[in-house]
Design goal:
- By secondary structure, the protein is an all-alpha fold.
- The chain has a single domain, classed as MetI-like fold.
- The chain contains ten helices and no strands.
- The model has no long low-confidence stretch (mean pLDDT 88).
């Protein structure tokens, strides 16, 4: 095996860093978009069909582009934002563009699961749209939202591994550079095992948190 423990630990840290940073920025973008997708729907709190249609089209466009193609397509933008198209920081940009719209859809689905009776009851009490969203809609969907965001993190872990294909760093880069290109099966197996453990850990934590916040 051509890699040492320090390289594996560094690659793991880069993957965690990429996933965490891109998840944070993706939530900043995706969460408000998800809420807007719901409340601007016909018959909802802030019904606005033109806005709803535009948002749906934009999100569908980004979601229809495979991540590996998206990474290459926005290289000029990545260079503009971080000054380079190679490395861990550069990989965060396409990860955000990939995960932001995905999270928006997950948020939308979770919020749509809330019983309309909850909204109607809040309106009957004289609550404003903002109060309904943050005091009724989101709290009622919290358990589902936790599971949705867990799915998003798992997806980002997989995407961060793909980022290694164009020098994004992390476990994916380690697997391609030392495993695939140098035909080192051991390195490939180690990286796969670490990724599986990461995913299992995140999913288990998400499931546990979801149960704790679930409303009876």
């Amino acid at each position: 095996m051509l890699v040492n423990n320090e390289q594996i630990i560094e690659a793991l840290w880069e993957t965690v860093y990429m996933t965490g940073a891109s998840f944070l920025f993706s939530i900043i973008i995706g969460f408000p978009l998800g809420i807007l997708l719901v409340v601007t729907r016909k018959g909802h709190l802030l019904a606005n069909e033109p806005v709803s249609k535009v948002l749906n089209v934009i999100i569908n466009i980004f979601r229809s582009v495979p991540f590996i193609i998206l990474m290459v397509a926005i290289i000029p933008l990545t260079r503009l934002i971080v000054g380079t198209s190679i490395g861990t920081a550069a990989a965060i940009v396409p990860l955000v563009f990939y995960a932001g719209p995905y999270i928006a859809r997950l948020i939308e689905n979770s919020l749509l699961e809330v019983d309309k009776g909850v909204i109607e009851a809040a309106q009957a009490m004289g609550a404003t749209p903002g109060q309904i969203i943050f005091r009724f809609l989101i709290p009622e969907a919290l358990s589902s939202l936790v599971l949705a965001l867990t799915i998003a993190i798992v997806g980002l872990i997989g995407a961060s591994a793909m980022a290694g294909a164009i020098g994004g760093g992390g476990l994916g880069d380690l697997a391609i550079t030392y495993g695939y290109q140098r035909f080192d099966t051991v390195v490939m197996l180690i990286t796969v095992a670490i990724l599986v453990i990461l995913v299992q850990g995140v999913q288990s934590a998400g499931n546990l948190l979801s149960k704790k916040v679930r409303r009876s």
